[in-house]
Amino acid sequence: MFSGLLTRRKAAPVARVEPVIASAPTSGTRDPNGGLFNIGYGGQSRVRTLPRATGLVAQRHATVFACANNIAGDHCKVPLKMFQRDGEGGEKRVRDHPAAYLMNVEASPGISARVLRFALVYAYCIRGRGHGFAPRDGGGELELIEAINPDGVSMFKAGRSRVFEFEDGAGVRRRVPARSMVNLRYMPEDGWTGRSPIEVAGESFGLALAGQEAAARTASGTTMRAVIKMEDHYATDEEYSRNGKRIRNALTDPENEGFPIIGAGDSIDSLDLSAADQELLASRKFDREQIAAVYRMPPSKLQMLEYGVKANGEQQAIDYLTDCLMHWSSLIEAEYAMGLLTEAERRAGLFFRHDFGALLQPTTKEKYDALTKAVGGPIMTANTAQKIANLPVTAGPDDDRLNPAANMTRPAETETKE
Questions:
Q1: Which of 11, 185, 282, 356 is 20 to 30 A from 378 (CA-CA)?
Q2: How big is the CA angle at 223 (ends 221 and 229), to the nearest 5 degrees?
Q3: What does the pLDDT look like over 30-63, one tens digit per residue?
Q4: Which long-range contacts (CB under 8 A, 24 or more apart) does 316-322 make?
Q5: Is 367 left (phi over 0), alpha (psi -120 to 50) or beta?
Q6: Handedness of CA 373, 379, 384, 388 (dihedral sign)
Q7: Residue 193 and residue 153: Cα distance in Å, rounded?
Q8: Which residues contact 291 (CB under 8 A, 6 or more apart)?
Q9: CA neighbor of 294 nearest in space, from 177, 169, 126
Q10: pTM score, whole prediction
């Protein structure tokens, strides 16, 4: 009796509705997202006709190459010294550390340290990143340091650290932690991924590259120099093309000596360089200024002498050191310490410093005058001055003693007089 009440009715069948999925382009190369080029990594201007500014392309511009070459060359030609802070404001030179030898003498078998440092800093200036592989032995000592092509390095996340995958100089594919790498990175927004200044200022560099390409086309003669008008009374396209080639050959034939022979109905209109093109070529001087400003390079180092030079060459070198080299070296030295020193060594006060004093070499007269004044006062002995001047050290009784101040005498001399 209750069977009819307990029996449930079957629900009416409902048609299954699938969610609508909008089709998206699968090719980022064919349909690129313009927003990806506005975050500092792409280097492509919104004006699609401008050349894409990358490190490999921009280094063909002489000013870009000169800036990177000057910075890398001046960093590798001076000694990279290692010091240790003593906790009382003083510093002591460290000479017996493996990194000091690898970064100043021989970085890896057959590769000098200067070649390695130039390669790292040049890639750092052009691409915003430079990589060096620094493996350690079982005792934790550095074995070698070799430069790695930035194009062949892949970086992966490992928590807050990173892991690098690349092919070393022996052709072995490796995946190593960050502590085994020298990772130079410029303007990293995430702390790890370096950005090239060329790509960050991609539109300005694109304008410079476009101007250079326009000047190259004009100089090579590949631009349109004339318009040839031919009568349209040819029976076939072959006759039309043959007559066009005949007129072109007549124009380019050096034996014509500037007097080409053409048909009675043909005419040639010359196309001179327009005022806009001439202004574009003139603006290339402004491109040099912008590129020099990006790299903080003084005009005198790029032979841009139209702005004048300072009367004192030493002051020019000081300005170059403080305005340009110190900006780059402070970042580079910090990355050397992170990649080549252990955490315990960094906590113990070890650090690197470029000896840019070698760039400020005085004249012989200035050097001897300064040493004479220093030895004459109570700050430097004669033996110390001889070592600085690379002269033989004498063993006189007073050669290793500080001279007293002008209004004082030595205790021994006072006792003798008394």
A1: 356
A2: 110
A3: 455 544 444 444 555 666 667 788 888 889 888 9
A4: 317/359, 317/360, 318/360, 321/356, 321/359, 321/360
A5: alpha
A6: negative
A7: 12
A8: 61, 63, 64, 67, 205, 208
A9: 126
A10: 0.71
